[in-house]
Amino acid sequence: MSVKFYQSENQVPLEMHKVRMIQKLSLLPVEERLKKIQEAGNNTFLLQNKDVYLDMLTDSGVNCMSDNQYAASFQADDSYAGSATFLRVRKAINDVFGCEYVLPVHQGRAAENILAEAFCGPGKVAFMNFHFTTTKAHATRVGSTVEELIQPKGLLPKSDEPFKGDYDLELLKKRIDEVGASNVAYVRVEAGTNLIGGQPVSLENMLAVTDICHDKGCLSILDASLLQDNIYFMKTREARCKFMEVGDIYRLLADHFDLIYFSARKLSFSKGGIITTKNESLYKQLMGYIPLYEGFLTYGGIDVRTMESMAVGLYESLDMEYISQGPEFINYLAKELDAYGVPVILPPGGLGCHLNAGAFVPDMPHNQYPAAAVGAALYIAGGIRGMERGTVSEQREPDGTERYAELELQRLAVPRRVFTLSQLKYVADRVKWLWDNRSLIGGLEWTEEPEVLRFFFGRMKEIGHWQEELAEKFRKDFGDSL
Ligand SMILES: Cc1ncc(COP(=O)(O)O)c(C=O)c1O
């Protein structure tokens, strides 16, 4: 139940936790920010954190741990094999998902690597509601093709559709029949669909996907990395979930999907990753990969202290007071920007507030990378580091042509339990200033373009001198303010 304010016009999301450890931040003057983003090749991944005021790059591995998570980490049992820590993680997975078989991996993409090795290959199609960068890279690396079967509503930047991550069920059936079930690597549902703005999938749609898979004999996989946000949206937007316990939703999903994996850098506010199932033969098929790529079966490349905090964090992800904080802060920021006319993805999803860069700089051609340009401009405007989720985050087609993203987004992640509301107000203020000065934002061009996952390491430069002009305008408008 949310807390009502006496004066309803002052209603804001209220944290049900308090801060007990802090990290000092600094905000560089705008002239320094200009220099730093250019030195970083206009790639926010290449900025040093000391030069960033608000790090909104990701919600991955940067969520704030609770007192209980830290306390648990001290009881870690540091043994190579048979560690008691693993038993506590396995119990947490049993309690939360009801799954018996648990394989630890060092992070989400390590699970994707193993699933690609086990199920993908030439001639095999991996179906997804939408791809995630690392999922697609692993599936295609071993020769599979990836097909996205999201409903058209998922790609509308602004709508009141509550579940934009939903699969197109008819298309899924049709494509399985066309491809042939034996050529389907797996059917993957990504909860809290990352690249379209952290948009949720309804419970009804997830269960319908698993029914289709069982009917047709295809493997169903749930990427549960963003499931806690997704469950918040199920509880608040889907009638049948309103009176369900959060834990009942986790267990219902685990009853239906063949396999579940997640990045614990998101789900459980810790680090590491997990593959889990109720199916013994799938477990046996996958277990051999763990010692090969990750580490022994009881630690999977994860530090045992982290595993202890993961176990506690999993129980915390059953608590609506914890899992509502991220989505409610994001909602606050997105609504604030929308009211000013700034184009943001609506309805707001989980993990972050997404600026619709395509509409922010509508005249900029795709091949000048609007989402990356808005990101560089925002760092200059406020020392805020977001992440490009547009064409730069795509892979080129095998023939080298550019694959333009359906949506050009600049993502402002809101790590869970980290920022204060005044910091989000600052973000809104600087984004509004940038919106009012959007005519100054120009494009970018490659100076170094790696072949694989180019968004991590690639470098770009401004076309013309728009960044200097933007910094000058900032100085003029803000005087001697940082
Ligand atoms: C939906 C989804 N799946 C998988 C991953 C990969 O997880 P990790 O970053 O732990 O490798 C991510 C990471 O952001 C994600 O958002």
Could you characterize the architecture of this molecule?
- The structure is a single chain.
- The protein folds into two domains: 8-59 and 322-478, Aspartate Aminotransferase, domain 1; 69-319, Type I PLP-dependent aspartate aminotransferase-like (Major domain) (Aspartate Aminotransferase, domain 2, 3-Layer(aba) Sandwich).
- Helix content is 41%, strand content 12%.
- The protein contains 19 helices and 14 strands.
- The chain has helices spanning 30-39, 67-73, 84-97, 108-119, 133-141, 169-179, 203-216, 227-237, 246-256, 280-287, 289-294, 304-316, 320-323, 325-340, 357-360, 370-382, 421-436, 454-457, 466-478; strands spanning 54-55, 101-105, 125-128, 145-148, 184-190, 220-223, 259-263, 273-277, 352-356, 384-385, 387-389, 409-413, 444-448, 459-462.
- The strands form four sheets. It has a seven-stranded mixed beta sheet with strand order 2-8-7-6-5-3-4, sandwiched between helices. The chain has a three-stranded antiparallel beta sheet with strand order 9-12-11. Strands 1-10 form a two-stranded parallel ribbon.
- Strand 3 (125-128), helix 5 and strand 4 form a beta-alpha-beta unit.
- Helix 14 (325-340) runs parallel beside helix 17.
- The longest helix is centred in the C-terminal third of the chain and has 16 residues, at 325-340.
- Pyridoxal-5'-phosphate is lined by residues 60, 107-109, 132, 134, 190, 194, 223, 225-226, 263, 265, 273.
- Pyridoxal-5'-phosphate binds next to helix 4.
